[in-house]
Amino acid sequence: MSPKITTELLKQLRQVMKNPKHVQEPVQAYIVPSGDAHQSEYIAPCDCRRAFISGFDGSAGTAIITEQHAAMWTDGRYFLQAAQQMDNNWTLMKMGLKDTPTQEDWLVSVLPEGSKVGVDPFIIPADQWKRMSKVLRSAGHDLVPVKENLIDTIWTDCPQRPCKPLIMLDLSYTGVSWRDKIVALRSKMAERKVMWFVVTALDEVAWLFNLRGSDVEYNPVFFAYAVIGMNTIRLFIDGDRMTDPAVREHLQLDSTLEPEFKIQVMPYGSILSELQAVGAGLSPKEKVWLSDKASYALTEAIPKAYRYLTPYTPICIAKAVKNASETEGMRRAHIKDAVALCELFNWLEKEVPKGTVTEIIAADKAEEFRSQQKDFVELSFATISSTGPNGAIIHYKPVPETNRTLSVNEIYLLDSGAQYKDGTTDVTRTMHFGTPSAYEKECFTYVLKGHIAVSAAIFPNGTKGHLLDSFARSALWDCGLDYLHGTGHGVGSFLNVHEGPCGISYKTFADEPLEAGMIVSDEPGYYEDGSFGIRIENVVLVIPAETKYNFKNRGSLTFEPLTLVPIQTKMIDVNLLTQKECNWVNDYHQKCREVVGAELERQGRHEALRWLIRETEPLVRVQ
Amino acid sequence: MSPKITTELLKQLRQVMKNPKHVQEPVQAYIVPSGDAHQSEYIAPCDCRRAFISGFDGSAGTAIITEQHAAMWTDGRYFLQAAQQMDNNWTLMKMGLKDTPTQEDWLVSVLPEGSKVGVDPFIIPADQWKRMSKVLRSAGHDLVPVKENLIDTIWTDCPQRPCKPLIMLDLSYTGVSWRDKIVALRSKMAERKVMWFVVTALDEVAWLFNLRGSDVEYNPVFFAYAVIGMNTIRLFIDGDRMTDPAVREHLQLDSTLEPEFKIQVMPYGSILSELQAVGAGLSPKEKVWLSDKASYALTEAIPKAYRYLTPYTPICIAKAVKNASETEGMRRAHIKDAVALCELFNWLEKEVPKGTVTEIIAADKAEEFRSQQKDFVELSFATISSTGPNGAIIHYKPVPETNRTLSVNEIYLLDSGAQYKDGTTDVTRTMHFGTPSAYEKECFTYVLKGHIAVSAAIFPNGTKGHLLDSFARSALWDCGLDYLHGTGHGVGSFLNVHEGPCGISYKTFADEPLEAGMIVSDEPGYYEDGSFGIRIENVVLVIPAETKYNFKNRGSLTFEPLTLVPIQTKMIDVNLLTQKECNWVNDYHQKCREVVGAELERQGRHEALRWLIRETEPLVRVQ
């Protein structure tokens, strides 16, 4: 990787920072955050402004440019990559290290008195604006919204905002019509006494209208906003997508509908002025509900006294609890995904010893097998295909410079998933195609014990996922080991592979309680820098649990694995398992054999079926 | 319990709320919080203002009196008691129930426009003031500080503020001189670039100066504040306590000292004016460090730009990590405490079958045995001595109206502890003096499994206690059971039995990481309303753990029980224990037998020794 030369770009940016054509008054600093106007985790090429100005294209980072300096804040995952991708115009600010200043403190230390700090008000979330603005103001500076994005003014070959065709999901996939979702949303609004709800997250718009898109890679979403009133529905969306007769029919745009279900389609770019009009016309006590992560621009459109901000929106919470149709879809998607992986691992077992399979080839082969499955749309994230020391890089993605050949001497870690029209998958398996060492087996077995401890956990209704995180670590902790990431994240239903408001992590306290129908990943790991990485990940469904007693009538929950891919028994030190853990593995493998076996049979994939049967032989524990 | 008649008192209070002699301008509402000026958990009789005005004397509750209404907010522990103790002038506001308004929302709903809400600025913590004041202001009202406490103006027979003699602790107890504590504190202040530190919590003042008092029951503290500068030490304390030659010698008040260690003694009541003088004399960048729980009055004395507020003070954190002398003292105290409890349980075993032992008699007997031990000072909290259904009331304290006789047919729960000059104890044992039912044994064994899971847990350095809470519940959860309180709290060293900043609870996220030398309780339970209560509590010391590996060189921690009192094996269903858990019990009992046995022997308590030996017979698990 050679760094991007940014001298000329920075010069141009510093000019527009003073140019009255672009800024009301000169700004002495300009902030370029990572995100887009919807606070998406994955963004479209046209929104990769921070990568454009700096060269650093990791998933997290904030650039700040002043007259004299250009600085980049990013976290431990990206220290090396950022250092390699940026030229020496840039200072790397390593977040999480003790001596690294916060963005605000750094600004205060370098800016001349009474400076203006500019930022695109559509990109910065309102809560972050509030925090920064407070610190800057108390030091005599001002955070100011710059309406025109200054990067866009100098980005001459900026790609166009994608505007791809929409996919309509019928009731057999969604279980609930968009009309009924609107009715449910309005009843939540009535409960909280709000008159308007502003949908800003892309997956929330997609979920609400039972539509999907492909404007952002890996995430089946499309650029749009929506504003839902008690009697109106406004959808802000661009392009000729609304001229597609199938879309018009799906949204009943041409039907005679009760007025409260009539969707008004408006240009994507008109959201701000429309919202300002809503804000200006509010009567006392008419509140407007927004996510507290919505952009500063949209939040400011509503006068402060009328705002109702929550960390999780009612759509986010409703979307997380999958209904029967969604759950069935997720099950089907996971069976198809398991078929693809059985094919892949069977193929790898034969090919790896020849020394011709690289990480990239293996990843491509996984995609090939997945794409053969019904309703396959695309991958759900960039495949992590890593062998040996690359496995210890938690967010590794093979590129030609790092591409390593799989061998019978190293552990192989594959973390991959796909979007099918009926569901989203995300699975990690760690395999050895030769003979693993006793130490590798020992570590694998501790990770497996952690995986089982979460998967088999029984816990009361109302428990938050973060309370389960330590179960995943206990076996590792006992031996002085650990892993430095959370244990699980929410998973969308043919939507984003990472979604709120639930998860399993020691890092948060603000997650919503788990409830039956929620879907999360269970993915403990162990990573030895320079040697290997181990992770075992299933996507699991929260289901009611039968218990002997029922304290305060609260009811209990547990998990059902949706992922049905064998866990390599060769890697397990059976004598480190309890009988209960051993039974869990055998029951799990029995289910893989039955359910995925039947599908392999149906698809006539006999070699992969034989592989599955071999890999699901019961473990026997020596007492 | 008959309610207190408050009609006349409320009339008087409403008069002073309008009387210009007492208020600058009339207040339409007056708030009476629970606490004292130091935000203490336990308060002196002169600070029980809420109990005086309402009759309700539970440990938590806030009264608000308006022209028309008198309302009391309290939590689930006290719904019944508050309803019984208050007359019908009062409305009970049941906190935690869905329909109960917050104090702010209720005020907004009942007050006439533009009202003033008064509160004693010394009693309300600054963070709470901020929250309330914001809501009231946005509704057009004002929260105003009323300098004179209005309850005190009508409380004609208010007891005097206690001013009892001080106890001096020498180095053999504290391990560190007050001088060295000041040096360490100043170095923390220098690190954070603050010039002043204000000590507002009573246990922090006591710890800093190696002094103890008895102004508040159960907590060996005395009324005082301190303000530590980089070159000055001011101690605000009343009475003739500073004329005691031993105290003068301990604090070196008459010695020729370097000026920065010279303690200026000032009247307790002068803290505000002195702090205002400090605040007025600050140069730019001279910060003053306060707890964010300090009173509004003291916080306001420092101009906002100069305040440095943290949830935990450096004293709170230093105090939590016990040094070798303190740890040794705690060990000694726990051995003596165990001697007293062996005597008690031996006595109960003989006396209970006679049907003459009540909960109060048992509690008194426990105190009697404890008071025979060296360096005994007082109890560390009101003894919870409860049998049968009373055991299910988590914060039960026997009173004549509820006093129940112990029998061979009911479970007995004793949660008790003492202050010794060398340490503080807190232990719960649950016993049956007849034959427990299979169900009682089953529940007891789940609680024991939870207790062991925490006590034997190994976890990385830097782990926060709340991450261990679920370990204590896992065995109960598996059967659909749970308990509705946290698992552990920090314990002081001859100081408050509840102290921050560490603990083991699902309820908090803001606890400080556990480190070697910290002391917490481990006390899971199970409570069946109307039937019985079970709790098993040891005080445990955080110690380094030896592990097979050492990930990232972080090191690991575990717990060593300081409490050494047998856990009744009669209550254990051995077949529900794993071999590892069984070994834990046997090792623990072996240690009780050796360590406490030696002390019983030394004290010539042969009958109690025989009881101990009987009660520590190893468990045998049938495979």
TrEMBL record, chains A, B:
Sequence ranges assigned to domain Peptidase M24 in this UniProt record: 328-542
Keyword Acetylation: yes
UniProt-listed SUPFAM superfamilies: Creatinase/aminopeptidase, Creatinase/prolidase N-terminal domain
Cofactor(s) the record lists: Mn(2+)
Cellular component aspect of the GO annotation: cytoplasm
Keywords: Acetylation, Aminopeptidase, Cytoplasm, Hydrolase, Manganese, Metal-binding, Metalloprotease, Protease
Lineage: superkingdom: Eukaryota
Stored Pfam families: Creatinase_N (PF01321), Creatinase_N_2 (PF16189), Peptidase_M24 (PF00557), Peptidase_M24_C (PF16188)
Self-association state and partner proteins as the record states: Homodimer.
Protein purpose: Metalloaminopeptidase that catalyzes the removal of a penultimate prolyl residue from the N-termini of peptides, such as Arg-Pro-Pro. Contributes to the degradation of bradykinin.
Start and end residues of each Peptidase M24 C-terminal domain: 557-619
Main location: cytoplasm
EC number in record: 3.4.11.9
Record domain Creatinase N-terminal: where: 48-150
Entries under Gene3D superfamilies matching the protein: Creatinase/methionine aminopeptidase superfamily, Creatinase/prolidase N-terminal domain
Protein name, UniProt field: Xaa-Pro aminopeptidase 1
Gene expressing this chain: Xpnpep1
GO MF term list: metal ion binding; metalloaminopeptidase activity
Entry similarity comment: Belongs to the peptidase M24B family.
Organism, scientific name: Xiphorhynchus elegans
Catalytic activity: Release of any N-terminal amino acid, including proline, that is linked to proline, even from a dipeptide or tripeptide
InterPro entries per record: Creatin/AminoP/Spt16_N, Creatinase/aminopeptidase-like, Creatinase_N, Pept_M24, Pept_M24B, Peptidase_M24_C, Peptidase_M24B_aminopep-P_CS, X-Pro_aminopeptidase_P
Entry-linked CDD domains: APP
GO biological process, one term: proteolysis
